[in-house]
Structure prediction request, 363 residues.
Amino acid sequence: MGIVGNSPPEWEGGAPPARRLGDVSALSDLMNEQPEDERAVAYDELAESALAVFGLHAREVRFVGHNSGVAYRVVSSDARPLLLKVHAPQGDSEGLSEPAILGGLTWLATIADVTDLSVQAPVADPAGALLPTVHFRGLSLPCSLQRWLDGQAVDELSIDQARAVGVLLGRWHAVSEQRAGTPAGAVHYDSRYLEHALDDLRSLSTTGTIRQESWQTIEEATTLACRLMDTIGTSAEVFGVVHGDLNPDNIIVADDGTVQLIDLAQLALAPYLWDVGVALYQYSYQEAGVRRALVTGYADARPTLVIPPLALEAFVCAAALGNLAFQCTIPVQRASRLFHTNVHTFATGYCRDLVDGVSFALA
Prediction:
């Protein structure tokens, strides 16, 4: 069974970030202690404190949400729209490491400096820091200020939009190839990451949640994906800085039709095909022509890149495995019927096809 006609599993709460579940942050605890009718005031005070770190006066500040960080849309006194983030996890999210966040900000600054691509370029504080600290009610928290990109997330991409996503992604990766290195603090999406994700699911086989035959299929598919990633290697033309979380919330379309990528939450290193596989997985509910257009656009932007047989299928499986592994760390999710259905679909669909050598990613 391939992707055609099958949406990616409906992960409750949306597509999770590729990181382990951790303790609820001190900021989340602090906010939860506030009376419900006073929390908005507390969030306003947090924004005011963070803006003061950047020496910024704002015409308008609007809370836009929180997950890995509390986010605000800010309109500065000179009318610039900006994204203000306080990098402290809320609810079930785990905080990212400060080196990884700073690495991501530095990478965005590099792209803005060497290309004409529209990115959420960071704004430094008066001392030149991209990730300064805000002190708020006894807490010390990293914060950042970035360019705001206007646009709307779309649930379904058109053929032209999908091709534009592929071209844009290829251009991002080309910057990494030209500026090869080993940035400090980066998160790695590699075979070890997949092995850890598999370990997170292992309890399902020991408790009888999943049939042994299905578990063996997941193990075989993971082995194939790990082997492929190790074979691809880490040379600059195939491995470098990736976005890491290309889901529909992080691909926006401006009023003029321009496609843009947002929410580079952390610096991540992986085979470039990791991003392609994640995008194919996230849009697997769309018709095959959309996925083919995305890959065509990517190939046009990076014509020398060779995609090995079944590589796209392996990276689609890797993306699904990462999602399931995250859900498995959350007790309420792990106990849900939807989660069990997703595990079964993953094993008997994506994994079975990869093990059987079925090319399904673009079919």
